[in-house]
């Protein structure tokens, strides 16, 4: 993720000019302001701006004139209560604006989260950099046999090397042709047309602004083990930022969303019968085979 010296200088200049403010400041987030956190081989996430802190959630919940804070324990208790009972709007009072650099195929998954504001780097106006996501060998897997939407075993070292060769060669050739097509002293094709030649592993960038409630929704889906690795690593990086920004809210999110499970009525009934000592099986539980497997994955981690 090499930043150019000019980009680094802009970041340094911003960090060197703090301004006094009456607004709520989250010390944990101030540390991260403007600093890019590397993700994948050329990507990053960095905080451009944020609004609110844990106290702002309580302030909104109490519709308070002052800080809204009764005591630190009260604040954490209230935030946990709100999260547990799906009171979402107080969390919408906090916002964050991120600058993200990510491969286009990751951006396609990310953009499905509609409850955010996005402004993407224009490849009609600007020339995209020669930067392509090339996975590390430990992330090159075969198609999963059990989950159509996932990865299975690692490829053999020989096959993995072949895949890497193909990815690198195709990316290089596509970019060489992109450059040849847009060359002003050559063909001079419009950038908005030439970009169609670039593969989905080329990097794009955007500003992404979202409130905390919808960010938690994004993180629950994308920091989950079922999410594709290449978007999950971004979500995991954002989790670290959020943990420093709103520590009470993040802990509540970990406990009541990220680490929690939803049980269907049949699953709750099966659990009750099990606790009474009854033998509950796939045949007598009233669930489909797949649901039963998912249920067993929750109750039996051995
Ligand atoms: C593991 C995984 C696999 C996926 N596989 C596929 C796939 O194969 N194909 C595919 O197309 N997508 C796929 N998706 C994308 C998924 O279907 C959602 O589009 C994506 O996760 C965004 O979720 P969302 O709509 O809840 O989020 P947001 O768009 O942020 O919306 C948040 C919530 O706001 C509400 N909302 C937002 N907009 C509207 C609206 N217009 N109308 C009503 N309610 C609205 C809904 O309650 C929604 O849950 C996958 C996602 C995951 C995590």
Automatic annotation (TrEMBL):
The portions of this protein that span the membrane are none
Annotated dUMP binding lies at 109-112, 120-124, 195, 222
Q: Which UniProt keywords apply?
A: FAD, Flavoprotein, Methyltransferase, NADP, Nucleotide biosynthesis, Transferase
Cofactor: how bound: Binds 4 FAD per tetramer. Each FAD binding site is formed by three monomers.
Superkingdom, natural source:
Bacteria
An example of a GO molecular function for this protein is:
NADPH binding
E.C. designation(s): 2.1.1.148
Cofactors that this protein relies on: FAD
Binding positions for FAD per the UniProt entry: 89, 112-114, 120, 211-213, 217
Q: Where is the active site?
A: 222 (involved in ionization of n3 of dump, leading to its activation)
The record's annotation in Pfam families points to: Thy1
Q: What does this protein do?
A: Catalyzes the reductive methylation of 2'-deoxyuridine-5'-monophosphate (dUMP) to 2'-deoxythymidine-5'-monophosphate (dTMP) while utilizing 5,10-methylenetetrahydrofolate (mTHF) as the methyl donor, and NADPH and FADH(2) as the reductant.
* Quaternary context: Homotetramer.
List, alphabetically, the PANTHER family matched: FLAVIN-DEPENDENT THYMIDYLATE SYNTHASE
> What family is this?
Belongs to the thymidylate synthase ThyX family.
The protein's name is Flavin-dependent thymidylate synthase
Q: Which source organism does the UniProt entry give?
A: Seohaeicola zhoushanensis
Gene that encodes it = thyX
